[in-house]
Amino acid sequence: MSGLPTGRPSLLILYKQLLRSCETYPSKNRMGIYQAIREEWKENKDLTHKDKLDKQIAIAYKGLSQLRQFDEMAMSGGRPASSNWSVTMEQNPMPKPDDYDSRKTRRT
């Protein structure tokens, strides 16, 4: 994962790209996804362990890639009126974090 940008400016750009891509995501749960992204970033803002940080950054880039699959301009090759596009999804695109169950019980 050493190829991922981890500097503060790069991460801020990634965060903004995620939020902007989420704004055009075609889903009834768009605002829920938007809020989830914001919450994840707040929870991980002080993350210092390199392996965990790299893992979270990789997940963020993967999520951005998947959100952008639904971007109208990207799908249509720059011609929004075009209907020639396709979307390919992974079987388990966003695996749950290792501590998901303990985090879930803390919130309730």
Account of the 3D structure:
The protein has 108 residues and is mostly helical. It has one domain (8-107). Helices cover 56% and strands 0% of the residues. It contains five helices and no strands. Helix 1 runs antiparallel to helix 2 (30-43) and helix 1 (8-23) runs parallel beside helix 3 (50-68). The chain is globular and about 45 Å long. It starts with 7 loop residues before the first helix and ends with a helix.
- Radius of gyration from the CA trace? 15 Å
- Main beta sheet: none
Number of strands: 0
Order of helices and strands: HHHHH
The percent range for strand residues is: under 5%
Low-confidence stretches: none
Protein name: Complex 1 LYR protein domain-containing protein
Pfam families: Complex1_LYR
Brief synopsis:
The chain is mainly alpha-helical. 56% of the residues lie in helices and 0% in strands.
Topology:
Layout: H1 8-23, H2 30-43, H3 50-68, H4 72-75, H5 100-107
Helix pairs in contact: 1-2, 1-3
